[in-house]
Design brief:
- By secondary structure, the chain is an alpha/beta fold.
- 38% of the residues lie in helices and 28% in strands.
- A six-stranded mixed β-sheet has the order 6-7-8-3-9-10, sandwiched between helices.
- Helix 6 links the parallel strand 7 and strand 8.
- Helix 3 crosses helix 4 and helix 4 crosses helix 5.
- The longest helix is centred in the middle third of the chain and has 16 residues.
- The chain is globular.
Length: 302
């Protein structure tokens, strides 16, 4: 079953076309929506939530029409907005309980569910403090909790790692992956940090200026290249010279060598050179495409 599908979806504003003839389908799991700032990601989410009418085309979310059944979509979908939107003078518990009640949960169930999701996102005693005193990371966790409190079938997460430090980003990405695997909730997550999506997504959609550039499983984006990465404890320069002398194509990237794979003999040459030079081999890894490389190539070809 497709959790969402668009057909020729277009959204025009007076000075710009934000979404331009977008036709795409999304299955269950964790799907990344990739694009530079201004690519149309947030506009697309607002259309899918039934908050913004399209200029042309059609879209369905959980088999519901976005123009006619927006309220029903919002009942079944959770939304974590990108922008700062939390009231500073209430606690996380008060806010999440309130939003659970708005979603239709009885008072007792709303309190129990709010406590559960706040624990899941990593807010313990802090959930009783006013949100105005929270760090950026804590505020992002509150926004994620309110998106989950009504037990949605699908969540839209708009730039969930914005403003977070490296540790905060890692923790948020782990939470998102858990939502898609352990909780059984499908996820559509937007980001302009492409490396993040490689870690958590099953499928990636690439858009630019509102147009679809590519929609593929993550394995297709990150398939193996015809190179191998070599890292040794020390002696990188002698290793590079030895491999070049044996006819290998070698380039240096920082503390590693990238060797073009001509065949099985390439791996034999690396092994023999490391043994002959008495080097400690740390890494011998098949190269893989990265989403960032694919995105750059797709945009350049437009």
């Amino acid at each position: 079953m497709h959790i969402l599908a668009t057909e020729g979806l277009t959204k025009r504003f007076p000075t710009v076309t934000a979404i331009d003839g977008l036709t795409v389908t999304v299955g269950s799991g964790v799907t990344g929506l990739v694009g530079a700032n201004g690519a149309g990601k947030s506009t697309l989410i607002k259309i899918l939530l039934g908050l913004l009418p399209p200029s042309e085309g059609a879209a369905r979310v959980l088999d519901l029409d976005v123009t006619a059944q927006g309220a029903e979509i919002r009942r079944l979908v959770g939304y974590m907005p990108e922008h700062e939107c939390l009231p500073p003078d209430v606690s996380a518990t008060e806010l999440v309980v309130h939003l659970a009640r708005i979603s239709g949960l009885p008072r007792t169930a709303a309190r129990e569910r709010a406590a559960d999701v706040l624990r899941h996102v990593g807010l313990a005693e802090e959930r009783y403090r006013p949100i105005g005193g929270y760090s950026t990371g804590m505020k992002q966790r509150v926004k994620l909790a309110q998106a989950l409190v009504h037990d949605p079938k699908l969540v839209f997460l708009d730039e969930p790692t914005n403003g977070l430090d490296p540790r905060g980003r890692d923790e948020m990405l782990t939470l998102i992956r858990r939502i898609g695997t352990e909780f059984g909730i499908s996820v559509l997550v937007t980001s302009h940090l492409l490396g993040e999506l490689e870690r958590i997504c099953d499928h990636v959609i690439v858009i630019d200026a509102g147009r679809l550039l590519r929609s593929s499983a993550i394995s297709e984006f990150t398939q193996a290249t015809q190179t191998v990465t070599v890292e040794v404890e020390e002696g990188l320069d002698p290793l590079a010279r030895r491999l070049t002398e044996t006819g290998q194509t070698v380039s240096q990237q920082g503390r590693m060598l990238v060797v073009k794979v001509a065949g099985p003999e390439t791996f034999d040459a690396i092994r023999d050179a490391a043994v002959d030079l008495d080097l400690c081999l740390i890494r011998l890894e098949q190269g893989r495409h990265r989403i960032e490389d694919v995105f750059r190539e797709e945009v350049a070809s437009v």
